[in-house]
Amino acid sequence: MSAEETPWEPVDIVAMMRSEARKELPHFLDLLKSGGANSRNSENPPASPGGTPYGRKALDDEARAVAAAHVGTRNDQLNVASFACGQLVAGGQLVEDEVVAALTAAAQAAGLPARETAATIASGIGSGKEHPRGPEPRVQSLNTSPREASQGEDGPEVVADTFARDVALEAQRLRVREAARDLVAREKAGAVAIPTRRSLADLLTEPDEEVTWSVDRLLGANSKGLLNAQHKAGKTTLGGNLVRSWVDGVSFLGEFPTRAVGKIVVLDNEMGRARLARWYRQLAIAHPDRVDLIDLRGAASSFNILDPSIRSRWAECLAGADAALLDCLRPFLDALGLDEHREAGRFLEALDELMAEAGVGTYVLSHHTGHNGEHARGDSRILDWPDEIWNLRRAKPADPDAPTDDRDVPRFFGAYGRESDVREGQVELDGDGRTLTFRADVSRASARHDAKRLALRSGLLMVIGANPGANSRQVERLLRERGVTFTKGDEGPAITELVRDGLVRREAAGNARLHYLTDMSPTSPGT
Length: 527
Fold this sequence. Notes:
Layout: H1 10-17, H2 25-34, H3 53-67, H4 74-90, H5 96-110, H6 114-128, E1 138-139, H7 146-150, E2 158-159, H8 162-191, H9 200-204, E3 213-215, E4 219-220, E5 224-229, H10 235-248, E6 264-268, H11 273-282, E7 291-295, H12 308-318, E8 323-327, H13 329-335, H14 344-358, E9 362-368, H15 381-384, E10 388-394, E11 411-417, E12 421-429, E13 436-439, H16 444-466, H17 472-481, H18 491-500, E14 504-509, E15 512-517
Parallel strand pairs: 5-9, 5-10, 6-7, 6-8, 8-9
Antiparallel strand pairs: 1-2, 3-4, 10-11, 11-12, 12-13, 14-15
């Protein structure tokens, strides 16, 4: 059947190429070469084939390979075929126009776009022509009999120049990949905004900007802060107090005036939606409509801001916020597979880029201290990163073994950084269970001293009540037997204080002093 009687239908051809009926492929290639009724070259059919039989056979093989290529390999296969045929064009085995026509038709059958096809063929033929070749010599295999060798194509053959040809083809693939990498790199570089270079002299002519505080003496406007909190010291409660101060315009911790903002976003990966709702309800925020909560518990990996495209999506999500609170760092690092001790800086730099893209100038990130409760856990970059560092710590109880309500353990808050310098003071929980108040007059050192003093007073009342008439040496021994911790000599002033308070009385007995509880003592038998 002639080409005129069987016009080429592209849809049917593509289906045929990808079916298992590969036996139809030779007929299809004949149609391509003859220029069927629907082909683009039907008006100007090619002249009689040029080149050598060897070259035409090679072109036929390459065209078949291109037409049968699957999605994902088509352009690469076309590039290899163009390069190989370009070598034969330069070696006088093929005519370039016929190569272009045959490979273009094969590429169309494979489903490649016309523009991509033309560019790939031109590049491949051009590169191949730089490495001309002719018919590849055949050598007799060690296992080939003289009779088989005389039969030419019907017997086993070894092509002597295969290695050199494969090297040239692989080199072309590497050139294409390298060019593609260079193109992508240039595209990325063109999208990067390079900061403006400025003279220091020009900068010094500008007046200094007055420090504007978001939270007075703690956090400047357009600044980033790190809340560095000891385990279970109350960082979430402190963060909630900060949110309320931001949106309601009330003083933070009752001590630090705070500038109200229009919108704040809280990204939390620890609490969960139900607990967040309960805690923030107890804070009694006057303007809850100004607070947006994003619950990331169990979904921290979605905050993959290391990926520029995902970071841009998060920037769209945060756009319009005036401030942000992120609680807390470690789950984000774990979800993204980052080592807290070596790779935290990658996340922090990406966080800065996110906030800049979103237009959020003020933000605070919470983080846990190490087991000693004094320093931020992990990479030193964590402490280099913020403008201001806030510390929240629990006091060590005077008697670690004594049972105590965790809420009764004193908490202490302080801050330092580029602008802030607030000495540590105690934060007390008000009766509502969520509102914190700062007391600058109580430090951890003074609280430890007071705790030891109160523990010693309590121990003295116990041993004197259980041993009325005990002298000073006996009182000291009984205190140590009860496990009361104190420095030798502290018990004397403590007893004097109890006498002054009317809780203990002293009686002289020769050179000794005997001790008794008074009726006013809470442990006195008479009370």
